[in-house]
């Protein structure tokens, strides 16, 4: 444990105050640790990593890590990340977003980032609700669930992040949880290292804004729910009754060049026709 703590501190800004700003029982700090361990495992230099964050609780992660970081407006993390990657394809660009940031306000940007297959890793922290802004329902709030903007229960269907991103054409799509930490580390490392657009959905509890209104007596109960409800996709697919179960793991693996690589190849081809350098 001490070695893990020392490792994480190598990647945190020294002028930040702790404990983290997140509420007690929030899983976002676990995702932060997983992100750091994944970058370390891949041997990436801190100066070669860019973290682009949107607005919301998840956006605070960018303030703690000692990488190149950008804190953007709500729903626009992927647009900024796309510009950074196209301007300097050598950088490892990771967009950190919440479910409201990525799939509600920024939903259109995410669909087109996946379609273009830009070489960015999208890390979506899904807690099923707008946490920082007061507990409004998001596009991933489960049907029937309580939120401050649907006190009688959510009437709309929730987005399935995995299926939506798969249909949009992403090179890689995976889902993990903050209970299954080692698996989450591996999913992130795999996504960061694969060319093209890769999305990792990290299920993380928000007891303050979601759990208390939906029958959970404590944050610990929410972690126990993750443990009992989520299982590897290989086991999930063999179930006859999948009620109340969620698959985790990698759902899409495609070996395709990212948009920035195809753009560079086009420039070289055009330059060759003209007899000059790209």
Structure characterization notes:
This protein has twelve helices and ten strands. The protein has one domain: Thiamin diphosphate (ThDP)-binding fold, Pyr/PP domains (Rossmann fold). Helix content is 40%, strand content 18%. It is globular, with a radius of gyration of 19 Å. It has 278 residues and is of the alpha/beta class. A hairpin with a 5-residue loop joins strand 5 and strand 6 (136-137). 43% of the residues are buried. The model has no long low-confidence stretch (mean pLDDT 94).
Annotation keywords:
278 residues; alpha/beta; Rossmann fold; eight-stranded mixed β-sheet; two-stranded antiparallel sheet; globular
Summarize the structure.
This protein is of the alpha/beta class and 278 residues long. The protein is 40% helix and 18% strand. It holds the Pfam family TPP_enzyme_C.
Total number of beta strands: 10
Task: Give the C-alpha Rg.
Answer: 19 Å
Sequence of strands across the biggest β-sheet: 2-1-3-4-8-7-10-9
**CATH architecture, please?**
3-Layer(aba) Sandwich
GO molecular function: oxidoreductase activity, acting on the aldehyde or oxo group of donors, iron-sulfur protein as acceptor; thiamine pyrophosphate binding
Organism: Solidesulfovibrio magneticus (strain ATCC 700980 / DSM 13731 / RS-1) (Desulfovibrio magneticus)
Protein name: 2-oxoglutarate synthase subunit KorB
Domain Thiamine pyrophosphate enzyme TPP-binding: 55-201
């Amino acid at each position: 444990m001490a070695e893990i703590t020392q490792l994480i501190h190598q990647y945190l800004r020294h002028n930040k105050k702790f404990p983290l700003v997140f509420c007690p029982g929030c899983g976002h700090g676990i995702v932060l640790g997983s992100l750091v361990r994944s970058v370390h495992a891949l041997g990436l230099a801190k100066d070669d990593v860019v973290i682009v964050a949107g607005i919301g609780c998840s956006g605070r992660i960018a303030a703690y890590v000692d990488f190149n970081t950008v804190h953007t407006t709500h729903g626009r993390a992927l647009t900024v990340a796309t510009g950074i990657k196209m301007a300097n394809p050598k950088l490892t660009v990771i967009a950190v977003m919440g479910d409201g940031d990525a799939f509600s306000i920024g939903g259109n940007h995410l669909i087109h980032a996946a379609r273009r297959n830009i070489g960015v890793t999208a890390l979506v922290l899904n807690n099923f609700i707008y946490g920082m802004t007061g507990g409004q329902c998001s596009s991933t709030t489960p049907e029937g669930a309580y939120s401050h903007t649907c006190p009688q229960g959510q009437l709309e269907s929730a987005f399935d992040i995995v299926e939506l991103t798969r249909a949009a054409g992403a090179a890689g799509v995976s889902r993990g949880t903050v209970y299954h930490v080692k698996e989450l580390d591996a999913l992130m490392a795999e996504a960061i290292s694969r060319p093209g657009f890769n999305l990792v959905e990290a299920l993380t509890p928000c007891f303050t804004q979601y759990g208390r209104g939906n029958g959970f007596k404590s944050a610990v109960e929410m972690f126990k729910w993750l443990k009992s409800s989520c299982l590897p996709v290989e086991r999930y697919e063999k179930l006859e009754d999948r009620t109340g179960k969620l698959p985790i793991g990698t759902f899409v693996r495609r070996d395709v060049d990212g948009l920035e690589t195809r753009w560079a190849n086009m420039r070289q081809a055009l330059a060759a026709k003209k007899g000059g350098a790209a």
